[in-house]
Design goal:
mainly beta; 5 helices; rod-shaped; about 45% strand; Ubiquitin-like (UB roll); about 10% helix; 26 strands; 6-stranded mixed barrel; 5 domains; about 400 residues
Length: about 400
């Protein structure tokens, strides 16, 4: 029996030699009076061996299983932390699980070139280095060439149109910070600074919510007016052949809103939903010769036009002067009739009849009366009669050739 302190020292010395890599050493001898325990030895989650141990120290079970243990390693006895050189607890029982977790070297590098290393049993760098560094749950770790790079968390403020988000965290970029804060950018959304920019210090991140919609605008297309000759309709008769109808055009625009405010409006295209229909007015070109009994005898005429008649004479031409000269060169006297210049170009020399005035020819021009079809009845100064009234101007047969007829009177 190893009851003397020297014997215990020899056992501990053997364990130290194993820990220093000198090997497992000889198996410890059983202690009389102690019942053997069945110990399952597990290392880093892997079952290594089951040994029978009657020694009072758990370290002997590790030795028998050929498992060295080093400073910093963690041993759990039936799930509870336990030092291998402490005697078995009274309630350990005869079937024991001895779980060894190896300590590992954790190397780290922090901001501004800070470096360090620690040996610990841990599942993550944060867990291993928590005692050596002022860590925060929002810190960020990344491994490069066996070195854990530590990015400490800092205060981050994200503002959206609806709310403000604050958190202490670390991030590789602005977009990474938004992801960690669970503030997504949807569709056309943007952020200032940009997603790919490094996370700035002390600068709030401004998220812009962007939406787009299409809007339509209806416009009217004016219709044209067309004039068409109607050979089967009598001269100076006007008919509406077709009523005009405006067209309909739809313009589409894409409108972009940033944070609820309109920021941009772009034309997309336009479509003609309904083509305009022109208004068609027809004028008659059929010449009909008629007979009319007058105080001056029967006349045959091919055209009758309602006109407003005035009269003039050589000393009533205006301008404070007298003149018998006319546009045609004929002497101004009764029988000379003046019309406006547009009429004169087509009617020069035509023989006409005016009730109450008699026969005459279109041989002169005048200024006319705006808005009215007009004639000026010529007289000499001796037989002058004043006219200011509506009357009918009859164009006497035979009619001129068709190409010389002014079908639409201006």
């Amino acid at each position: 029996m190893w009851r003397a302190p020297l014997a215990w020292a020899l056992v501990l010395t053997g364990l130290v030699l194993v820990a220093l890599g000198t090997g497992v050493g000889r198996a410890p001898e059983p202690t009389p009076g102690l019942s053997a325990r069945q110990v399952l030895v597990r290392v880093d989650g892997r079952d290594v061996a089951t040994v029978a141990v009657s020694s009072p120290w758990p370290a002997d079970a590790l030795t028998l299983a050929g498992v060295p243990w080093f400073p910093g390693d963690e041993v759990r006895l039936n799930g509870l932390p336990w030092e291998p050189d402490r005697t078995w607890p009274e309630d350990a029982g005869l079937a024991v699980l001895l779980d060894l977790r190896r300590a590992r070297l954790w190397r780290w590098q922090g901001p501004q070139g800070a470096r360090g290393a620690t040996r610990a049993v841990a599942a993550s760098p944060a867990e291993a280095l928590a005692l050596a560094l002022p860590l925060h749950p929002g810190d960020l770790w990344s491994a490069q060439a066996g070195v854990w790079h530590w990015r400490p968390a800092r205060e981050v403020v994200v503002r959206t149109p609806q709310a403000e988000h604050r958190a202490r965290l670390a991030a590789f970029s602005v977009g990474h910070a938004l992801a960690r804060l669970r503030v997504p950018l949807l569709g056309l959304d943007g952020v200032t600074p940009a997603e790919t920019e490094p996370l700035p210090a002390g600068v709030p991140l401004q998220v812009h919510r962007v939406t787009e919609t299409w809007v339509s605008r209806q416009e009217s297309i004016p219709y044209d007016n067309e004039v068409r000759a109607l050979p089967d309709v009598e001269l100076d008769t006007v008919q509406v052949v077709q009523e005009g109808r405006p067209g309909i055009k739809v313009r589409w625009e894409r409108v972009r809103y940033v944070d609820g405010e309109e920021a941009q409006r772009l034309p997309v295209g336009e479509w003609v939903v309904q083509e305009p229909q022109p208004r068609v007015v027809g004028y008659g070109t059929k010449v009909v010769v008629r007979t009319l009994d007058t105080p001056d005898g029967p006349i045959r005429y091919w055209r009758a036009v309602r006109v407003y008649a005035t009269s003039y004479s050589p000393c009533r031409v205006g301008g404070g002067r007298c003149s018998s000269t006319t546009a045609s060169g004929a002497r101004l006297q009764k029988g000379v009739i003046a019309v406006t210049v547009p009429w004169y170009r087509s009617m020069k020399g035509m023989q006409v009849y005016v009730p109450g005035y008699g026969f005459g020819r279109i041989l002169d021009t005048g200024g006319g009366i705006p808005g009215r079809p007009w004639i000026d009845l010529g007289y000499s100064d001796d037989d002058y009669v004043s006219w200011h009234q509506w009357t009918t101007l009859y164009f006497l047969a035979p009619p001129p050739p068709p190409e010389e007829i002014l079908y639409v009177l201006p």
